[in-house]
Design brief:
alpha/beta; 6-stranded mixed β-sheet; 12 helices; 37% helix
């Protein structure tokens, strides 16, 4: 299916007044940064706009949130427009799905390869390194004058989803957009310090515990690690403080793929996949009802940790036997 244009989406946003933005559950830097940039631009245009979340914003991203995010499901009453940002399908809206559908018009802006076009207006580009790139283009198409706060949010979105410009999704255009954001007055050093060098001691403790669960599979071509609710209780850490562990696993020399299993409070197991060169982990995630990118994807399994581990191990072993 063909995307709507940024101009069409901009026209819809201009016609609305009450606008709710929806990042995916367990929002990362791209989801948070993209939403905050769009929210600020819409408020500057005189709109009533909020970012509706249902879980904790990671501590290293809170420097961006100047009263943009809310847990209040009833805020704004019936919105004119709901916009899901960096969200590939309705399931990733979790408990906010029904609220999303109360709007007169729904919009999806995303860059996941497996994204569904489930909204009235959609702009999905899997070639974009981050949804932040798409929000940047949308704001330019709408004639928005980018300021420092918008620039900081968009830079955060891009720098996090490209792994500090190291991942294969990084393109010439990614660098051009990042360079343009410097013109808004951003301090990239300050942003990266907030994101990468402001961890709590508890974060280091839970990462160490998680890495101690590491095991190799598929003859050393893949590694698997996990974190449990008990481990979180022992360290006093939050689950979002395990973000980045799967990338560390992938970085091991000789490893092509990594899987990181997270035991959620409801007992389900959330799995993050990463690969380096040859394995399409989006295909693996899709086979478990999830999705994502070729080199970064995820899924959720409704079973215990041991069963989930065995299923992931079996699938990685089978898939890596073919590459």
């Amino acid at each position: 299916m063909i995307n709507n244009t940024f101009e069409e989406i901009g026209k819809a946003l201009s016609a609305g007044h009450k606008i709710l933005l929806f990042p995916h559950i367990n929002a990362d830097g791209d989801a948070v940064g993209s939403c905050i940039a769009l929210c600020r631009a819409l408020r500057q245009a005189g709109k009533e706009c909020w970012i509706l979340i249902e879980d904790r914003i990671p501590g290293n991203l809170r420097f961006l949130d100047d009263d943009y995010c809310t847990l209040d499901q009833d805020i704004l009453g019936k919105p004119d427009i709901s916009v899901c940002v960096d969200c590939s399908d309705m399931s990733r809206l979790h408990d906010r799905g029904k609220r999303f559908l109360t709007a007169g018009t729904t919009v999806c802006i995303d860059h996941h390869l497996t994204a569904d076009r489930f909204c009235d207006l959609n702009y999905i580009d899997s070639n974009a390194a981050a949804t932040g790139e798409l929000i940047y283009k949308l704001l330019l198409a709408c004639g928005v004058q980018l300021d420092k706060e918008i620039g900081e949010a968009l830079f955060t979105a891009i720098v996090t989803d490209t792994g500090r410009f190291q991942y294969k999704n990084t393109s010439k255009q990614t660098h051009e957009i990042a360079a343009a954001l410097y013109d808004t007055g951003i301090d990239a050093g300050y942003i990266c310090t907030e994101i990468y060098e402001s961890m709590r001691m508890e974060k280091l403790m839970i990462r160490n515990k998680a890495l101690n669960t590491l095991s190799t599979v598929a003859g050393g071509k893949a590694v698997i690690a996990y974190v449990t609710q008990e481990m979180l209780s022992e360290t006093g850490a939050f689950m979002d403080e395990t973000d980045g562990v799967v990338e560390e696993l992938r970085s091991i020399k000789g490893v092509e793929a990594a899987a990181f299993l997270k035991e959620s409070q409801d007992g389900k197991i959330k799995v993050s996949f990463r690969s380096k060169q040859s394995l399409d982990v989006a295909e693996i995630a899709e086979s478990f009802g999830g999705g994502g990118h070729i080199r970064a994807a995820g899924c959720t399994l409704a079973c215990g940790l041991s069963d989930a581990y065995d299923q992931i191990k079996e699938r990685l072993t089978a898939c890596l036997g073919r590459v």
